[in-house]
Design goal:
- The N and C termini lie far apart (about 55 Å).
- The chain has a four-stranded antiparallel sheet with strand order 2-3-4-5, with helices on one face. The chain has a four-stranded parallel sheet with strand order 12-11-13-14.
- It contains eleven helices and 14 strands.
- The protein is an alpha/beta fold.
- The chain folds into two domains: about 100 residues, Alpha-Beta Complex (DNA Primase, Chain A); about 200 residues, Dna Topoisomerase Vi A Subunit, Chain: A, domain 2, CATH 3.40.1360.10.
- It is globular.
- Helix 1 crosses helix 4, helix 5 packs across helix 6 and helix 6 packs across helix 7.
Length: about 325
């Protein structure tokens, strides 16, 4: 079946109520005629659903409309991304101009170059020493599924990912290069999925997100957080997660409800790309109702460089 954009949105309006979209997006709260807004924390109801469940109004923000607009606001995106989201769920094609059909893109699957291994205590100890991590942090990363090991052409490598296996980056354990790049060219990676974010699944809303730039900074954050939790001050709950590079611009729609309304602390690299990354993601996350602050690194430095000089109590306060 081929549908125009207009037909796609109309089909969504006929197929889904506001409550349907609310549940598919895993938004907090309960959709009722009068209820609390799913887009922010509030004490008193300011959200209405009417027209047999087809219309909505957020009286605090003034926004409202049909199910298409509800999805757009919930995802914090434009109508193009709403079309992509609907396309996946309605299972149809659409086209921009007559006779120019586009088929749905297949769900990405990473093409792993070898088996993903958990290693053993000796592996973890050697890796901890190499990466300046605590052994407990390495073991916890393996147990939670965010760290794996593999071999490529006989070279030992580490893999940063999570249990969702939608995004990953592979680096050499010896710090060497794959040709001209630090990361192994890994087909099927969806960079809108942030490694570590799968741990947010079902986590309480008070858990903050500690967002780093790149896999080495992510591992440094895991080690620093492990140290923080063993201090007397280590009472705050955080989930470290990683952008796979400063050029990542999109947040996977499935992650939007998990991020919405949380506190987020970003630690970009101390360079121009890191500045741009921080500006972009701060605007994106504020639009999702997050509270956002940025930890600035000295110019030319990143979190991995300074991990042994930083006090974890300050980073995760």
């Amino acid at each position: 079946m081929i549908a125009t954009h207009s037909d796609l949105f109309q089909q969504a309006r006929e197929a889904y109520t506001i409550a349907d979209a609310w549940q598919m997006l895993r938004l907090p709260g309960e959709p009722k005629a009068s209820c609390r807004s799913p887009f922010r924390d509030e004490r008193n109801p300011s959200f209405s659903i009417f027209d047999n469940g087809r219309g909505w109004k957020d009286h605090a923000s003034g926004e409202g409309g049909d199910v298409v607009e509800f999805i757009r606001v919930a995802l914090g995106c434009d109508h193009r991304e709403v079309r992509e989201w609907l396309q996946e769920r309605l299972g149809i094609d659409y086209h921009d101009v007559p006779h120019a059909a586009r088929k749905p893109e297949p769900v990405k699957a990473i093409q792993w170059p070898g088996d993903l291994l958990t290693g053993n205590e000796a592996t973890w100890g050697a890796f901890a020493a190499k990466m300046r991590m605590t052994p407990l942090a390495v073991e916890a990363a393996v147990q939670s599924g965010v760290l794996r090991f593999t071999k490529i052409n006989g070279v030992r490598c580490y893999v940063v990912t999570d249990e969702a296996r939608r995004a990953a980056e592979i680096r050499r354990c010896d710090g060497g290069m794959f040709g001209q790049t630090k990361a192994y060219p890994l087909p099927g990676v969806d960079k809108s999925w942030l490694p570590g974010a799968d741990i947010l699944r079902g986590s309480p809303k008070f858990t903050g997100i500690f967002l780093t730039e790149g896999p080495k900074d992510y591992l440094a954050a895991l080690s620093l957080y492990s140290r923080y939790r063993r201090t007397e001050a280590g009472v705050n709950s955080w989930c470290p997660a990683a952008l796979l590079g400063a050029k990542c611009k999109r947040l996977h729609p499935e992650l939007v409800p998990w991020f919405r309304g949380r506190r987020v602390r970003m630690v970009p690299d101390g360079d121009t790309a890191g500045d741009e990354m921080a500006d972009h993601w701060k605007a994106l996350l504020l639009n999702l109702g997050c509270t956002v602050d940025v930890v600035r690194m000295p110019r030319g430095k990143d979190l991995f460089d300074l991990a042994n000089e930083l006090e974890p109590e300050g980073l995760f306060r």
